[in-house]
TrEMBL record:
It comes from the Archaea. Belongs to the CapA family. The lineage of its organism: Archaea, Methanobacteriati, Methanobacteriota, Stenosarchaea group, Halobacteria. This is Poly-gamma-glutamate synthesis protein (Capsule biosynthesis protein). It holds the Pfam family PGA_cap. InterPro entries: Capsule_synth_CapA (IPR019079), CW_Biosynth-Accessory (IPR052169), Metallo-depent_PP-like (IPR029052). PANTHER family: POLYGLUTAMINE SYNTHESIS ACCESSORY PROTEIN RV0574C-RELATED. Residues 4-261 form the Capsule synthesis protein CapA domain.
Amino acid sequence: MVLRIGFTGDVMLGRVVDDRQRRRSVDAVWGSTLERLRSLDGLVINLECCLSTRGQQWQRTYRPFHFRADPDWAIPALEHAGVDVCTLANNHILDYEEVALRDTFAALDDAGIARAGAGETIDEALEPAVRTISGSNADSDDTLEVAVISLTDNTPEYAASEDSPGTAWIDIAVDDTETRQRVAAALERARETNPDLVVASLHWGPNMVTTPPDSFREFGRWLVEEGVDVVHGHSAHVFQAIEVHEGCPIIYDAGDFVDDYRVDPELRNDRSFLFVLSVTADGDPVELRLHPTEIDDCAVHEASSGTAEWSRNRMRNLSEPFETSFDRDGDALVLSLEA
């Protein structure tokens, strides 16, 4: 039996999304994807905002955008979609200062949603999110122990230190001593939980860039060689290529899943995928399935046929230089990971 774990790009629930959600059902933000999300055995998202109604906008350094969502609706929305893990190592989790960061911790913890990538100290920020994923088949008792580490190279002013809260910040460089030490510490803590599957979720690189730099390729491969089973990248607001290294998928960027952003007519940051990884109960990835999505009216939807075709073609073209080829099943792209 295989278990299916979904991965999304940025889930930004603040600003206009927050305003809309105060006047519609908590499920509305998931649009027509809700049934598919709820059918998964596990779900990992990058939460691109804090969950709070308190705090003041970060002013210590220049920040053009500040994202905050009311946990009174946001937490039920995450629960209804079946979110298991929120990664917090990103460039918006401290947008409303430490009080809102701590409110985010408390809201997720009270809801039983695991989190990684931010903490009261750098040691806490490096702790993995750990979840036991159970199969949806009532006749099966298969489970999967999943450990997720979350890291970012964005917004160094948000970095946690030995005595101040913030994110698990690193420099994306394999030869950087501090980076190697931090990644090693995070992976060691993940291994101590005896996981079947190790996920590295990385909020890396600049916005609106369609191709990962060589340093990211080197870093992603190095993570796999260090024992990571899937690399879950995000930050660019547009999806990037997928590479398979030693049988493990590297999703260089999952794009945007929910937001209120201005849409670039060429790069189409409103289009992406729900990435669904099929894993055996022993933790072996066997397939990655890409379900096309699009954002409309501050909600995510199953992509229309035309949009789905555009996204499939773009993903094929982006991934071809990485020697990654896909099959097709209905609207989805399918990437086999079996030898």
